[in-house]
């Protein structure tokens, strides 16, 4: 495929996919920029894997078009697209050495003269910090090292686009956190567009330049990690990414009136009528007396059910007057004056809350 380096790496226009009369993906339109680390994030069954398979060419869209670097890719088979894919299983060959695994695509597809392959393998292994591992058997490697070998193999031919399907799902928590940073570093070094599909919100927030959040086959928000977390477009996004307290009431654009709890000041909003007010627990303070609530804060009175020590923070659960449980996370130094079963006031700066349409 002859491509245009100034065009988006991926352009999806009205893309949909139907299986058995049901939409798995519906009306997705988005651009992925050149050299961007882009994540498609959503729960199981949201359509994210199907969307990725249409980008790779493993599935053809029922509706709409796929363009890669300005060239229509709809109908072009996967092996003729300038991309590669990294699977969660790594798909390494246990009978081959690390170097032969990395070189496999170049040899089979005859993409380089044999005289150049050894140097290309050396460069690819250096990129993932496995310089001295070329002669080892894959069976001798740890999970993190196998992941690095798979990355080196996927990038050795320098595709313009690399797709990653739940790439860190097989790693333990500590190693997964390390590899998130490593993948982002590698992506910056090679200048290849990375598109990852994941259900792991922390993974998407850590690695991505932008995130497309999917639900029910549709893309419901595209934004930076900060944008989807701090400015969720819907209750679904606010609940799926991170944790939020939700209060349902009526908005007039300046306050949200919640039955039984009162009127709470909010950032200026265009939403008028039925609305949800979302407040992140880490933005909520808690105190044992009303006179300790800072001036200008929104506040709710409740009963402290329990406080749970988390190490770096304490999570407080309050029962509000309408029976709603409201959660605050504070530093351990902020627990003075609070007693389980006693009165407590949850409070927050209005600008840290978010008004969402129903």
UniProtKB/TrEMBL annotation:
Residues 10-241 form the ABC transporter domain. It catalyses: ATP + H2O + polyamine-[polyamine-binding protein]Side 1 = ADP + phosphate + polyamineSide 2 + [polyamine-binding protein]Side 1. Gene3D superfamilies: 2.40.50.100, P-loop containing nucleotide triphosphate hydrolases. One of its GO terms (molecular function) is ATP binding. Belongs to the ABC transporter superfamily. Spermidine/putrescine importer (TC 3.A.1.11.1) family. GO terms for cellular component: ATP-binding cassette (ABC) transporter complex. Part of the ABC transporter complex PotABCD involved in spermidine/putrescine import. Responsible for energy coupling to the transport system. SMART domains: AAA. It is an enzyme of class 7 (translocase). This is Spermidine/putrescine import ATP-binding protein PotA. Its EC number is 7.6.2.11. The keyword ATP-binding applies. It comes from the Bacteria. The complex is composed of two ATP-binding proteins (PotA), two transmembrane proteins (PotB and PotC) and a solute-binding protein (PotD). It comes from Streptomyces griseoviridis. Keywords: ATP-binding, Cell membrane, Membrane, Nucleotide-binding, Translocase, Transport.
């Amino acid at each position: 495929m002859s491509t245009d380096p100034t065009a988006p790496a991926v352009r999806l226009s009205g893309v949909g996919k139907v299986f058995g009369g049901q939409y798995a993906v519906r009306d997705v339109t988005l651009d992925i920029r050149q050299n961007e680390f882009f994540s498609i994030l959503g729960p199981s069954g949201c359509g994210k894997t199907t969307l990725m398979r249409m980008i790779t060419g493993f599935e053809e869209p029922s509706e709409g078009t796929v363009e890669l670097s300005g060239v229509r890719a709809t109908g072009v088979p996967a092996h003729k697209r300038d991309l590669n894919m990294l699977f969660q299983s790594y798909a390494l060959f246990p009978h081959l050495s690390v170097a032969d695994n990395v070189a496999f695509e170049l040899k089979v597809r005859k993409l380089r003269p044999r005289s150049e392959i050894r140097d290309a393998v050396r460069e690819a292994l250096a990129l993932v910090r496995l310089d001295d591992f070329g002669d080892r058997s894959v069976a001798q490697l740890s999970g993190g090292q196998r992941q690095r070998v798979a990355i080196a193999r996927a990038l050795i031919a320098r595709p313009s686009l690399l797709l990653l399907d739940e790439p860190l799902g097989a790693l333990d928590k500590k190693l997964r956190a390390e590899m998130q940073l490593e993948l982002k570093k590698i992506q910056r070094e090679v200048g290849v567009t990375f598109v990852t599909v994941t259900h792991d919100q922390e993974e998407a927030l850590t690695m991505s330049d932008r995130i497309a959040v999917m639900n029910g086959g549709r893309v419901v928000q595209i934004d930076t990690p900060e944008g989807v977390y701090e400015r969720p477009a819907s209750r679904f996004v606010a609940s799926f990414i991170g944790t939020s307290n939700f209060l349902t009431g009526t908005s007039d654009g300046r306050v949200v009136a919640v039955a039984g709890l009162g009127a709470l000041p909010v950032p200026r909003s265009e939403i008028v009528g039925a609305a949800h007010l979302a407040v992140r627990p880490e933005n909520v303070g808690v105190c044992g007396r009303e006179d300790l609530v800072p001036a200008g804060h929104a506040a709710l009175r409740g009963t402290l059910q329990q406080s749970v020590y988390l190490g770096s923070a304490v999570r407080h659960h309050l029962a509000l007057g309408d029976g709603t449980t409201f959660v605050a996370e504070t530093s351990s130094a902020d627990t003075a004056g609070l007693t389980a079963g006693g009165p407590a006031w949850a409070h927050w700066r209005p600008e840290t809350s978010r008004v969402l349409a129903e």
